[in-house]
Amino acid sequence: MATVIREAPETVNPLDVSRAELWREDRWQEPMRRLRAESPIHYCEDSKFGPYWSVTTYKPIQHVEALPKIFSSSWEYGGITVAGDGVEHLQEGEVPMPMFIAMDPPQHTAQRRTVAPAFGPSETERMRADTLKRTSDVLDSLPVGEPFDWVEKLSIELTTQMLAILFDFPWEERHKLTAWSDALGDIESFNTAEERQQRLAIAYEMGAAFKELWDRKAQNPGQHDLISIMLQSDAMSHMSHEEFMGNLILLIVGGNDTTRNSMSAYAYGLHQFPEERAKLEANHDPDLAVNAMHEILRWQTPLAHMRRTATEDTELFGHQIRKRDKIALWYASANRDESVFPDGDRIIVDRENARRHLAFGYGIHRCVGARVAELQLTALISEMQKRRLRVNVLAEPERVNACFVHGYRHMQVELERY
């Protein structure tokens, strides 16, 4: 995905919700609420990323996602974030890295079909006992009554372990996966030629490590890991180096950031709503834990938006969309759409329709690893309940400075028993 970073507008547009500071400072809710009320399909004429349409309510987002021929995800047009500008606008230090989430059918269909079984019901069930065991081990390693960084000690550790297992990546080097995810999922890392070169160097470092793993698996394939699955598929066994790196970025960022930031939201969100935390503390029914998991995903929405590009002139609920217009689908806003989720700014762990969230997207691009993410977050909730552990947040977290990955860098907490 090529990215043209423009001069920041001289005057701040309060309805330009792509501004990184809104997300870093957790101030995105009010402009999104205003957009939903006044202009749910809104044309932002000027932003750091150029002009784009904001779609902020539930039904229009589903509508766009259901029409992939008209609203493309292709990397050639700019891909899946509002930052991209297509292959004709490549900047110095950029190399296109196609990934199946940033492809349209039939290429998307074939590559997604290759990796989907690794995240299916039977594979998720196969991972359940190990996921619970690893969650237990990490929780038992944490201090009670002493401050520590929840993001570093729990969220990153558990998600990085899962990524290493999914790829059969060398266990002692697993924290490289987190570093690569943080760097390559950052849409604010394109501002200068130097930053783009640094990002490209990290991508090649990751590619070299996985090429070594690929070559080992070609000689001795495994049964369940993603590299072996790709190797044995017609759709992915002959990928170009750039496509290989693109799909690695997708699977690493998708597998790391969504689960990691939901686990952090479990701690932060329930601290904000102690009456809802009390429901989970009083009732250890597994069904309530599952519902709470969906509600936390809805409330956090770990990827704030996905972007589509119009392939033709079209109309969207009375608005004239031009060919090659950018459309930002703000999942974070749709998941607080008052017409679907009343009192949506609150976590309500027994919310009746929590499962209707769009945190994993909708349509053909719905997150392929959703079941594994759900397993990990539910395991955390249930294992915390078993230990009668409560997380108290000691200070406002440091958040990701971007409008794509919606998450937490650091968060000081203290555990207590109840």
Walk me through this protein's architecture.
With 418 residues, the chain is an alpha+beta fold. It contains 14 helices and twelve strands. It has one domain: Cytochrome P450 (Cytochrome p450), CATH 1.10.630.10. 46% of the residues lie in helices and 11% in strands. The strands form four sheets. A five-stranded mixed sheet has the order 1-2-8-5-3. A three-stranded antiparallel sheet has the order 4-12-9. It has a two-stranded antiparallel sheet with strand order 6-7. It is globular. 47% of the residues are buried.
Could you provide a short overview of the structure?
The chain is an alpha+beta fold and 418 residues long.
The total domain count is: 1
Report the portion of residues in β strands: 5-15%
Report on the biggest sheet: 5 strands, mixed
| CATH architecture field | Orthogonal Bundle
Kindly report the CATH topology.
Cytochrome p450
Give the end-to-end Cα distance, rounded to a whole number of Å.
49 Å
SSE string, helices as H and strands as E:
HHEEHEHHEHHHHHHHEEEEHHEEEE
Query: Oligomeric state of the chains?
Result: single chain
| Percent helix | 40-55%
Contiguous runs where pLDDT drops below 50 for at least 5 residues:
none
Q: Look at the structure and name the CATH superfamily.
A: Cytochrome P450
Number of strands: 12
Mean pLDDT across residues: 91
Structural class: alpha+beta
Shape: globular
**What is the CATH first-level class name?**
Mainly Alpha
Main sheet: strand order: 1-2-8-5-3
- Indicate the radius of gyration in whole angstroms: 21 Å
Number of helices: 14
